[in-house]
Write a structure and sequence with these properties.
- By secondary structure, the protein is an all-alpha fold.
- Helix content is 78%, strand content 0%.
- It has 16 helices and no strands.
- α6 runs antiparallel to α11 (256-276) and α11 (256-276) runs parallel beside α13.
- The radius of gyration is 21 Å and the shape is globular.
- The two termini are 33 Å apart.
- 52% of the residues are buried.
- The model is unreliable at 7-11 and 400-412 (pLDDT under 50).
């Protein structure tokens, strides 16, 4: 073997060894935080539903947590300005404090809504830091797709634990104990995050306005703008689906443990979707793979619209979650390959403002439909079809559709 090749292999092996503990901490922190997130998604709506008897109030109260994405561009600017490990850890601790306050005042829905909104600020910072800032900073380019898949699939498995643990504690004890336990999990995630290496950033003399302008300008790039439009519309349709299913099943009188198991099964399947994403249709373009997976997710959603019995809900939710697990990994990889690392906080925060910010609006759409007596699923069906058509238009227009033959198979 030539000396240069041997040196290259040795360097790559050394980098891989150095990255292993980083990946373990990223996975561990993400798992703990996501268990807390999905425990909160189960506990908060059911607690408010129990206190008020209103499905709409329960959906709206939890939706306040996601409103924080409206100011995510500002959060992204500060993520790019300060030491990134510290910001990641602080975001987890901030969520712990807010959820503890919500637990203490659980019978006061507006206090809970305010605390959930503030916790959402930390949730936005933690989400941006984990997958969109720390992975590009700490992981070499050739290994990022695998690390994204590992972190994303671990997050999906954590969602299962979050629902199961939240449901069991809620059924055996009460909502206040369950919420305080969630606060402890967030605090633990913050402590664990401090095991990551420090990630200092270069000092900048640009203004907040300049940094925000830079982030928003990236929306004008077709490869980013069309993705944001399609994903935002899709999240308006499907983003609030989990909390809506929790609330509707609760309104049916379904036992909290049964609700948590029902949603956990689907999320478990979704976790495998995320894990399998790097090897799913690798010959296809990233754009075409996103389109395929979003179409399958829409099919699962279409079955849920029919208000089927519980065993059909499990199957349809599983299909939807599996396809979204695949789609999420591919879309994150797509953005990591498109956006420069040193701009990742600013640009991804703008993207997340629209994509993730659509999630609480999705919950509000369902809530308004229920309150006004509209057909509950109608707006979501229209939005989901629109999202698929938007991304299909871009995929064909950009020329990436050439990788698919008329029969739908990849070209040889």
């Amino acid at each position: 073997m030539p000396e240069s090749s041997r040196d290259t292999d040795t360097a790559a092996t050394g980098q891989e060894a150095a990255e292993r503990p980083v990946v373990r901490v990223l996975v561990g922190t993400s798992v703990i935080g996501k268990i807390a997130d999905y425990g909160l998604m189960l506990v908060a709506p059911l607690a408010v539903l129990s206190a008020t008897g209103s499905v709409a109030d329960a959906i709206l109260t939890y939706a306040f947590r996601g409103i924080a994405y409206a100011i995510s561009p500002v959060i992204g600017v500060y993520l790019d300005r300060y030491e990134r490990r510290g910001m990641f850890a602080a975001a987890q601790v901030q969520q712990a404090v807010c959820v503890a306050i919500a637990a203490i005042f659980l019978d006061h829905e507006w206090v809970v809504a305010g605390a959930l909104f503030l916790s959402g600020l930390g949730g936005v910072a933690a989400s941006l830091s984990s997958q969109f800032v720390l992975i590009p900073e700490l992981i070499r380019p050739g290994n990022r797709a695998q690390v994204v898949a590992r972190v994303s699939s671990s997050i999906e498995f954590a969602k299962v634990l979050g629902f199961l643990c939240g449901g069991v504690v809620l059924a055996v004890l009460d909502a206040k104990v369950a919420a305080l336990g969630i606060a402890v999990l967030y605090a633990g995630a913050g402590v664990w995050a401090m095991r990551l290496p420090r990630v200092p950033v270069e000092p900048t003399d640009t203004s907040l306005r300049d940094d925000l302008t830079l982030g928003f300008r990236w929306l004008a790039k077709p490869e980013i703008g069309w993705l944001v439009l399609s994903m935002a519309v899709a999240n308006l349709a499907l983003g609030g689906l989990g909390s809506v299913l929790v609330t509707l099943l609760g309104d049916r009188g379904t036992n909290p443990t049964v609700i948590s198991v029902t949603l956990a099964i689907g999320l478990f399947i979704g976790a495998w979707g995320a894990r399998l994403a790097p090897g799913a249709f690798p010959a296809w373009s990233l754009q075409a793979r996103i389109l395929l997976f979003q179409a399958v997710a829409a099919a699962g959603f279409g079955v849920l619209v029919l208000d089927p019995p519980i065993w059909v809900i499990v199957l349809a939710w599983s299909v939807n979650s599996f396809a979204l697990g695949l789609s999420n990994v591919v879309s994150i990889t797509y953005r990591q390959e498109t956006i420069p690392v040193h701009l990742s906080g600013r640009i991804n925060s703008v993207i997340r403002m629209f994509i993730a910010g659509a999630v609480p609006l999705s919950g509000m759409t369902y809530a308004l439909a229920e309150m006004r007596g509209w057909w509950l699923w109608g707006p979501a069906v229209v939005l989901e079809v629109a999202a698929l058509l938007i991304w299909l238009f871009y995929t064909v227009r950009s020329g990436d559709g050439r990788q698919l033959t008329a029969e739908g198979a990849p070209d040889a």
